[in-house]
Amino acid sequence: LGSMILLVLLKAITFDLNRLQDGFLLSNCCAVMLNLSPHIADLHEYVAARLVSVTTSCFKRYATLVAENGGEPELEEGDLSTLLGMHGETCRTLLSLIKHSIRRKCLEKNIHLVYALLLEQRDIQKIYQYASLGDMSPISSLIDKANAIIQENGDGMSADQTLGQLKSHMAELKSYCIPEGLVSCDDSVASDASDLGNLTFTYEEESDPEVFFVPYVWDVIVGTLTTTTMEWSRTYIQVFPLNEDKEVEASALDNDTVGLGNSDAGKHDNTPDVV
Q: Is 29:229 a contact under the CB 8 Å cutoff?
């Protein structure tokens, strides 16, 4: 179930970045992922590969946007008003999730994620030069340690053989970032999620939330259906009025009011012209 939830969130984020570009939806998806990140364990092999793939794809787009911005990252972290900011925040969220998932406390249960990082290490290594995306040392140290283990036992192994080697050298993998003076992962406070910061997000709901959420969710549904192969016609969708339609109607009403005001003034103003 946990892998399925993560897969759905990855799909929602990908669709939002490519089609909707909705900052509100993205911020909520990122918050949910960060809330889940300290508890991720036993990731399915496909979801682990998908997590790394989405991360590298988002980074490539982020790198392109940074280049188009003169080599400068977004002005403020968390600013979702631009595509650059949206991709930057997504990259940081996904990388934080990966760092939580490869903590020594849960590394053995997420061995498929380690393997996925090895497969994509060339693209992952390109992220190291972007300081705006956070500290990459936990990921880089793990990749280096896993590469050393594989090279010691010979190249040319199959996927199953590689996973077997990683599992049999789990103690070495877990030691990749044990601080000096500690002899096991059980002695390290970093085995808990506290070393990666407090990533708990809470949602504060105002009174009458349906006033916002019903039109918003309906807009998302209509936007999704009208940008896919289903090709729904917006003019025939009448379940709820769309936000943009209401804005057009309000603008037209304001114009009519102004026009009426000018017309009334012309009809009832009998004051003679001053010569």
A: no
DSSP 18: I
CA 200 from centre of chain: 16
Q: Return d(Cα 36, Cα 43) in angstroms, integer.
A: 12
Q: Report the chain's terminal Cα–Cα distance, integer Å.
A: 84
CA dihedral 162, 103, 182, 200 (to 10 degrees): 180
pLDDT, tens digit (0-9, with 9 covering 90-100), for 133-163: 999 999 999 999 999 999 887 777 888 999 9
Interval 196-219: pLDDT, tens: 455 555 666 667 777 777 877 887
Type of residue found at 75: L
In angstroms, the CA 117 to CA 135 distance is: 16
The pTM for the full model equals 0.72
Q: How far apart are CA 24 and CA 19, in angstroms?
A: 14
